[in-house]
Amino acid sequence: METQQKQDQAIPTVSVFGVSVCKWGMQDTVRYLIEAVRSRKPHQVITANPIMLMAAMEDPAYKKIMQEAELVVPDGTGLVWAAQKGGEPVTERVAGFDLLHELMREGQSRHWKVYLLGSTPEVIQEAARRLTLQYPGTEIVGYRDGYFKPDQDLEVIEAIKAVAPDLLFVARGADTQEPWIGKYKQTLGVPVMMGVGGSLDIISGKTKRAPVAFQKMRLEWLYRLLSEPTRFRRMLALPKFVVRVLRAGENLTKMG
Fold this sequence. Notes:
Layout: H1 2-9, E1 13-16, E2 19-22, H2 26-39, E3 43-48, H3 50-58, H4 60-68, E4 71-74, H5 77-85, H6 96-110, E5 113-118, H7 121-134, E6 139-144, H8 153-163, E7 167-171, H9 174-188, E8 192-195, H10 199-204, H11 212-216, H12 220-227, H13 232-235, H14 237-248
Parallel strand pairs: 3-4, 3-8, 5-6, 5-7, 7-8
Antiparallel strand pairs: 1-2
Helix pairs in contact: 2-6, 3-4, 3-14, 4-9
C-alpha cells in the first residue's frame, strides 16, 4: 500500500482549470497502469478532452469526479494545447482508444481479465468478439450493454465482481460513464476502470476512426463532426474552451 501511495504521489501533473492532467506520455502511462493492476487498488482513469473540461467548469459535481479520479490523461489535443499555453506542457496526447489497445496488448502476457460495459447489445458483442481475436491472451470474462437503469446498478456491479476483472472498460458517454465509475469504483474494486466512449463502436466496426491525416493534423474532432452532424451542439464547447484558455493564459494552471 505504501509503495502504491508513493507511486500515486509521483504522478507529474498540470492543473487545467482545476483538474490535474497527467503529463506522462503513453509509455509511462501504461507502465503506471501495469503497477495499478498489480496493486489491486481501484483506479479510475479519465481520458479527458476539452468538452469534458467545459462540463467540469459548469458542473461542480462533475468537476469533483474528475478531481477525485486516480489518473486523468490528455485524450483531446485541445488539452495538450492548453497545457502548453499554460506553460506546463504534457509529453504527448494519450488517446483513450490507443490506451485501451495498449492495455489489451499488455494483458496478453499477464493473462489479464477484462469486462466490457456499455453501448448497444450488438456493438458490445461484436467488440468482445473482435478483441478476443486480436488479443487471445487477454480474456474477455464478461460484457453487458449500457442500457440499464439506476435501479439495476447493483445487479450490474455484482455481475462484474463475480468475474473479478483486472480491467473494466465502460462505454456509456462521458456524461454517464465517468459519474458511474466514480460513484461505484470502491464497490467494484476493479484495479483499472476507464471510460472509453465511442471506442467500442470503432472496434466493432460500427463507426470508423478518423484517418491518420486527420489525426496528425489534430483534427479528429472535425472528422467526427463531419461524420456525425448531430454532434454539432456538443462541439460548441470547443470554441468556448479555446476562448477560456486564451483569456486565462498562464493563469489557467492556477485556476481552481
